[in-house]
Amino acid sequence: MVRYIYWDVLFLTNFAVNYIILVAAGKLSSRSIAHWRLALSSFLGSAYAVSALVVPLKAAYSLPARVAFGLFMVALSYPGARSAALARVTFCFFLCSAIAAGTALGLESVGRTVPAASLFSGEAVVHWYVVALSLAVLAGLPVIARMNGYSALKRLPLMTIEVSMGGRTLGITGLVDTGNNLRDPVSGLPVIVIDWDALRGIMPPEVSAFFMSTWDAIPVVLTETSVGTRLRLVPYESLSGKKGVLPGFRPDRLALVGKNGLRVFKNAIVCASGERLSPSGLYQALLHPDLINP
Known about the structure:
Blueprint: H1 7-28, H2 35-51, H3 63-77, H4 83-108, H5 117-121, H6 128-147, E1 158-165, E2 168-176, E3 191-195, H7 196-199, H8 208-211, E4 231-237, E5 243-249, E6 253-257, E7 263-265, E8 269-273, E9 285-287
Parallel strand pairs: 2-9, 3-8
Antiparallel strand pairs: 1-2, 1-6, 3-9, 4-5, 5-8, 6-7
């Protein structure tokens, strides 16, 4: 029996499957989703699947190679995820892949026997309606999980914030910290603490010495610039009793971004932390609670 494989159908089917799996993984792990990244990753995954038809290199399409390419797709789709956060979204990605494959195998097996190995070897013929039903089950998984009270970030109030300075804008994830009671002693504005590694990209190079607390290296002319007039020093005391000052600045614009993309602009002082606020990379900022509940 002659079997024909249409590369365009294979490409589009893989693109749809990859995209929905990546979306479901992001929803389950509560990651912010950049759809253009997911589309790019899905495109590359589809191209990888189609190339198996013409590239005579079996090792490149073995199970370990496919797992490695899956890891690449996850890293490309969710570049902000690190260590524990990356492990969580990766687990959700392969979990969703297994659910989709298992659902397809179950539906195709109704009334006949389909070896599970045939799905991985490419010998099985899977009908389009089976793929559609499998994707429908997968798409509904995050909704079902949320209805049952599942949340990967339960009790962690995270939100996206945007900080603009000198024509550059930084978008990061912030944690609403009820223990953050810092305020600027001059203006009385609430303080947001952000990782310096994240802030570095939008700050002029001449202020690096200020934020790295190398006071002797701060140029005298800095106080005469537009940036210099925005700089602040905010005293703090940690829970352990340690006292010090945090270098900060008043940004051109600060916005809290809702899930619907609506931006709410706030007045606040942004301070830099020399140490990572979240070892897992789950968030890069600590928000003052008054910014959420004034």
